[in-house]
Design brief:
By secondary structure, the chain is mainly α. The chain has two domains: 104 residues; 152 residues, Up-down Bundle (Outer membrane efflux proteins (OEP)), CATH 1.20.1600.10. Helix content is 73%, strand content 7%. It has six helices and two strands; from the N terminus they run H-H-H-H-E-E-H-H. It has a two-stranded antiparallel sheet. The longest helix is centred in the C-terminal third of the chain and has 66 residues. The radius of gyration is 37 Å and the shape is rod-shaped. The model has no long low-confidence stretch (mean pLDDT 88).
Length: 300
Amino acid sequence: MAEAIRGLRVNVVNGCVDLIQAKANLALAREILKTYEDLFRINEARVNAGSVSPLELVRSRVAMLQFRGQVQRAQLGVTRARTRLQGLLGPQALGQPIDIVGELKVPLAPATMPLEKLHELAIESRPELQTVRLTQMRNAADLKLQLANGKVDLTYGTEYRRQRGVNGTSNSMGIFLSVPLAVNNKNQGEIARVQAEQRLYARQLEALAANAKNEVTGAYEAFVSARELVESIERDLLDSAKKARDTADYVYRAGASSLLELLDAQRALNDSMQSYQEALGDYRRSVVSLNASVNKEIVD
């Protein structure tokens, strides 16, 4: 049951992260669409004033209409994420309005605990390993029982009788001893069965421990990689893309560049922002996976 709850918790938390990320993608798409709509209105006014050619208006309108489809896809992504989360929450949540309040961006947590310590925590606390350990304890008790059943049980006793009759009285005492002759039957089969189970459970425990270590290692590396990617995008990419787009917009409004250059800068900023939100979502999911692999809340 604990293992089933662990898996369900991972799925539910990831479902919440997916919904938060889908809502963030939708908000970003609407914000970018507003930028294209503003650009279209500006070009419409400039065309009416005769300062730019009608081709500029057509290009800006095409870019705006193309991104409207992106907004619709983002809205569909929110609906799908909400439906998946409702399914994870059980039948009582189906058909009920459900939402997750929160921001996709959270403070990045440092990886302060060494990997070896995480391995030890996982082996100690993971439910499937605890199950095998309890089974080993039961098997050890079963082995003691089968060894006891294979030994000879001696039955002995005494009796005393007093008789009185017409011919007189008498007193007698008896001693009896019963010893089963187990020549070929010393419960060898059951003892061998339990010993084989002991070896099997030992191998199972080794395999599960190795699998837990591999899972923790993979989750830890994914966590470190996702955190470094978020830091790299925040440090190197976002500001540069925003400055490039603002510069292209200023130059275009001044009439010193073409619309295509502005659209290229806007597209680069769009890709950067979408990559950033994907990285944030991957980071949140890597935290969930790392905590689940150790079966403890080691990262907030």
